[in-house]
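Thanks for the sequence, V.! I ran Lipoprotein LPP20-like domain-containing protein right away. Repeating your input here for the record:
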Amino acid sequence: MNIEKQRNRIGLISIVVLLCFISGCSSLFDKHIEYEYVKPDNYPVLKAIGYAPLSAQPGISSSQKMLMAVKVSKLEAYRELTEQVYGQSVTSSMTVKGAVAQNDGLKSQVRGVIRGAKVVKSYAAGDTYVTELELDMKRVHDLYISQAKPRKIKRVTYY
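Predicted structure:
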């Protein structure tokens, strides 16, 4: 009977090893994966305004100061859009000695890439130059889709 028990054990072990081998080879089967693209439900339109003082700009003539103010106001508007899209990183530090604040510091940083924004208006208002930007998130989504092509698995068929 011991020999019969050993044969049954060997047979059982052989079956387990064979099943492990077969399940390990399941990646050898061909498969077809169908993807579907995911679209958001709505697309907000973000707006930003940038300001620049004309008289504070560097330049010899008023036209040079105007050109610098145009550039600065546009960059300020882009900075505001970047804050809306990516947020703002804020770092703070303070030194206290004897229950009295000795040093207090605050640092802010904005970093990101804005694509698809358009200038809505650009005009002078007194001694200030103003630039208004608009960022339609539908346009941003379309630009993103054309480059990244995000997708999710719809169905997998094995052969």
